[in-house]
Amino acid sequence: MKIPALIFAFLFCQCVQASCQLEEYERFLNTQSLVMLEASVQLFEEDRGKFKTIKPFVKLEVRNNKLKVYIAKKLNELNPEVLNIKGPIANFVPSVSVQIMQDGSIRDKVDLAMSDDPFYRSEKNAMKPVERLYLYHEGMTEEEKKRFLSARNSLSKHMESNEQFAFMKRAFTTSLEKVCPVD
User: Fold this and answer.
1) Inter-axis angle of helices 142-160 and 48-78, to 10 degrees?
2) Which of 106, 148, 164, 168 is the most exposed, fewest CB within 10 Å of its CB?
3) Measured in whole angstroms, how far is the alpha carbon of residue 66 from the centre of its chain?
């Protein structure tokens, strides 16, 4: 009777641990989205031209944060070893985690783990053109890039003035192990 109870206790602890990590990561991403949305409202009130420039970027980031939460939940079920439980809260789902394939090619571990998920694939495909534009400035003229970077700086200043910014910032330096201790 003791062995099944110990196994159950171990599984329960693992489940609680994963739940804590997911909860912290989701809270970080939701806070980041909220801070960004509130900052964009302030930007709207201050300078509508900058708001119009930055609005698609904000929509991309909020959509990307929702996808990251989805990925974290799915990977926790399907392939938890891909998740970064020893790093900062913000890196729970690693942005870059490569795996060298048998043919010598390099693939992203998250993409590999999520490759069969239709929602993940459709979201990544839908966001790809917008990512190219706003993250890599592909297709932007020098004038558009200058306007975008100016609007992004204004957005960042408004984000930094938000009371939730400190919590958001700590997610880049605070280890998940510190917040969700491993037994």
Assistant:
1) 70
2) 106
3) 8
Reference 73, options 41, 105, 139, 120; nearest CA is 120
Token reading at 151:
């609007």
Contact call for residues 58 and 75 (beta carbons, < 8 A): no
Burial class (CB in 10 A: 0-12, 13-18, 19+), 182: exposed
Q: What is the pLDDT of residues 30-51, one digit of tens each?
A: 999 999 999 999 999 999 999 9
Beta bridge mates, 106: 100
Tens-digit pLDDT profile for residues 147-172: 999 999 999 999 999 999 988 888 98
Task: List the one residue out of 18, 61, 7, 9 whose CA is nearest residue 39.
Answer: 61
Q: Identify the residue whose tokens are 């790809």.
A: 128
- Convert 36-58 to b/e letters by CB count within 10 Å (16 or more is b): bebbbebbeeeeeebbebbeebb
Nearest alpha-carbon partner for 33 in 149, 162, 175: 162
The tokens of 135 are what?
């993250």
Place of tokens 């037994």: 183
Structure tokens belonging to residue 116:
């069969």
SS3 84: coil
